[in-house]
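ZP: hey, is the adenosine-5'-triphosphate complex queued? I don't see it on the tracker
AM: it wasn't, my bad. submitting now with these inputs:
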Amino acid sequence: MATDSFPGPEAINMLSHLSREHELLKKKNLEESFEWKRLYNEVTELKGNIRVFCRCRPLNEVENGIGLKKVVEFDSSQDTELQIISSDSSKKQFKFDHVFKPEDNQDAVFAQAKPFVTSVLDGYIVCIFAYGQTGSGKTFTMEGSPENRGVNYKTLEELFRISWERNDIIRYELSVSMLEVCNEKIKDLLVEHSNQTSKKLEIKQAADGILDFPGLFEARVHSTEELWELLKSGIRVGSVGSTSANELSSRSHCLLRVIVMRYDLVNEKTTKSHLWLVDLASRERVGKIDVEGERLEESQFINKSLSALEVAISALASKRGTPSSPSCCRVH
Ligand SMILES: Nc1ncnc2c1ncn2[C@@H]1O[C@H](COP(=O)(O)OP(=O)(O)OP(=O)(O)O)[C@@H](O)[C@H]1O
């Protein structure tokens, strides 16, 4: 009978010593990681819970073809300021947390959004949204294309990467929902993946203060590939129209919600956080853009909802609560 496959008393002693060492090392790593996390979130808060970035896209072929001139000037030594040149050649300066120039690519934009991913995985509620005039590049920035992925894809990829990296100490479960707000109606863009039929959705405030949409489908996702397939199907279902200013104009607010369930193996606590990635419909100067009938009504709804958003953001910025913006809602 072969006995050398059973460890002797010395080997058992050594194994238990190694196991104790491993436990101590794991505890030390955990303590360091929590300290790092605390400092990281302190820095994030100091930088401000609301950040505003401005991205200027390059002029396209049509705009160049008809000889349109650039009306934005950048200071090469400052990446937080730009100047708008008016028709009388006077200049007006605007300041942001960061300004992206026409030559800045999708990676440069994502580099600024990346730190928020860590915040979501640490239990914060984060919302990243693109706001701007029709054709200014909101969908390009958020969605991008398969060759030129935007903030949505890169953020979700990073979310998965960090959650796997932390697997030793924290277990994450990620689910996504995708919805569209068009003419003040909420549509579930992933309903075809559920066993339900499309139904009217409403916004409710849950007991914990977080906004919820009872009945909205939540798809559990395990990888970026799986998630991307889901998003593509949601995008197909979304509404697209056209204005004279942009041929493929988004006529609705498109919202992607990632629900992050976080189980902390150290303190055995479960927390839930949300990441919102939003491509807003564009505010339109109805008098200047050739819209009529149904499109005109849509534009009026869009403008009204964007005005409400402005009120909510101003209230958050001045740290006041408004009836429509729960004070627990934290926007980075
Ligand atoms: N940074 C950029 N670099 C190159 N092309 C860009 C950039 N931003 C936008 N574009 C191009 O400009 C066009 C309009 O962009 P996009 O559709 O993203 O605008 P939008 O703000 O979402 O418009 P709408 O609100 O009408 O839907 C698209 O063809 C897009 O590929």
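AM: back. Residues 49-104 form one domain.
ZP: great, adding it to the tracker
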